């Protein structure tokens, strides 16, 4: 049960962040080249992603062996720790916060400089495909280990619907989303999942069973908060 | 399509690209625990695994902030 809820949360939060970034690119394409090529690009990318997920999902779910848990766990851990380290450095003020409005401006400027007629379609297509492949990786990696595929898909689906609804309402990049806090939470959850599955792959006994995921998440949350405190530039430490 | 796939794959393993030292340290700790966990008391191996990664996160974040 703890594993299912962790899978829903991890997939929802990670997918939400990725979909927000994809939405920015679709909106930029729509603003410069019109809604038709932007929606067509996003639509075609969605079909490609659905085919990819339908192809890979059942295959990956079948590989329920320790060596596979170990490899997938390690990939998840790399992905999670990277997000977590970036979120820590942003929270500490070492690197700049990700700015969705700046990304939108950069993309619209680049689109205005491009002359080819397919630029709007390609920008939306590439944006949705790249972010979507990351979502598929997260959903499959979180879901394939154990029986979490359905909860992970539910989480990602809910995130997709939420971002589309917010995009339809706002009609502009979602700049007020606390993206770094979300990335911090995603980093914590994905790192916890990765560590759990590395342990399963190594046949390590987790003292609390599935509830070890909660303890692992807490450990990473505390470690990341400590990392923020010790990474602050000298003048900003309290 | 291929470019998008390449970008997505590089995102997954980009800890090795962004900060190779951190990536290698995580890999080394995983290998060390894989080789040594059978010699540890059973309830200690799991906590040792996560505490190692947590310590590496703190150390490498601090190092990056000092380099900045």
Which descriptors would you attach to this protein?
heterodimer; A: 238 residues; mainly alpha; B: 68 residues; 4 helices; 0% strand; flat
What does this molecule look like?
The complex is a heterodimer of chains A (238) and B (68). With 238 residues, chain A is an all-alpha fold. Chain A has helices spanning 2-33, 35-62, 66-91, 100-113, 119-144, 149-170, 179-201, 212-231. In chain A, helix 1 runs antiparallel to helix 2, helix 1 runs parallel beside helix 6 and helix 1 packs across helix 7 (179-201). Chain B is an all-alpha fold. Chain B is built from 4 helices and no strands. The A-B interface holds A 48, 70, 74-75, 77-79, 81-82, 84-85, 88-89, 92, 94-95, 126, 129-130, 133-134, 137, 191, 195, 198-199, 202, 204-207, 212, 216, 219-220, 222-224, 226-228, 230-233 and B 1, 3-5, 7-8, 11-16, 18-19, 22-23, 26-27, 30, 33-34, 37, 42-43, 45-47, 49-51, 53-55, 57-58, 60-62, 64-65, 68.
Can you tell me the overall shape of chain B?
flat
Please outline the major beta sheet of chain A.
none
- Beta-strand proportion of chain A: under 5%
Helix share, percent of chain B: over 70%
Mean pLDDT of chain B, rounded to whole units?
Answer: 83
Unreliable runs of chain B:
none
Q: Label the overall shape of chain A.
A: globular
Q: What structural category do the secondary elements of chain A indicate?
A: mainly alpha
- What is the distance, rounded to the nearest whole angstrom, between the alpha carbons of the first and last residues of chain B? 36 Å
> Which regions of chain A have little confidence, pLDDT < 50, spanning 5+ residues?
none
Largest interface: A-B, 45 and 41 residues
Q: How many alpha or pi helices of chain B? A: 4
> Structural class from helices and strands of chain B?
mainly alpha
Order of helices and strands of chain B: HHHH
Task: Report the sheet with the most strands of chain B, covering strand number, pairing sense and barrel closure.
Answer: none
Query: How do the SSEs of chain A run, as a string of H and E?
Result: HHHHHHHH
Helix content of chain A: over 70%
């Amino acid at each position: 049960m703890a594993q299912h809820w962790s899978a829903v949360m991890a997939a929802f939060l990670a997918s939400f962040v990725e979909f927000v970034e994809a939405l920015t690119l679709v909106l930029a394409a729509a603003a410069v080249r019109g809604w038709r090529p932007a929606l067509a690009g996003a639509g075609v990318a969605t079909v490609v992603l659905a085919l990819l997920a339908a192809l890979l999902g059942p295959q990956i779910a079948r590989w329920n062996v320790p060596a596979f848990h170990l490899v997938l766990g390690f990939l998840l851990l790399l992905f999670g720790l990277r997000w977590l380290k970036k979120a820590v450095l942003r929270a500490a003020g070492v690197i700049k916060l990700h700015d969705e409005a700046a990304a939108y401006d950069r993309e619209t400027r680049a689109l205005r400089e491009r002359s080819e007629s397919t630029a709007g379609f390609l920008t939306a297509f590439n944006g949705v495909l790249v972010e979507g492949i990351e979502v598929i990786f997260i959903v499959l990696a979180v879901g394939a280990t154990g029986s979490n595929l359905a909860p992970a898909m539910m989480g990602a689906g809910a995130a997709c619907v939420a971002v589309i609804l917010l995009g339809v309402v706002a009609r502009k990049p979602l700049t007020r989303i606390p993206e770094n806090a979300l990335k911090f939470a995603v980093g914590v959850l994905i790192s916890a999942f990765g560590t759990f599955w590395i342990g399963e792959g190594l046949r390590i006994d987790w003292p609390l069973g599935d509830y070890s995921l909660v303890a692992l998440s807490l450990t990473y949350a505390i470690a990341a908060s400590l990392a923020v405190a010790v990474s602050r530039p000298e003048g900003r430490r309290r | 399509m291929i470019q998008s796939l390449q970008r997505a794959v590089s995102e997954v393993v980009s800890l090795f690209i962004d900060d190779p030292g951190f990536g290698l340290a995580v890999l080394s700790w995983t290998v060390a625990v894989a080789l040594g966990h059978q010699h540890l008391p059973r309830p200690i191996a799991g906590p040792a695994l996560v505490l190692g990664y947590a310590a590496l996160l703190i150390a490498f974040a601090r190092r990056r902030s000092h380099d900045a």
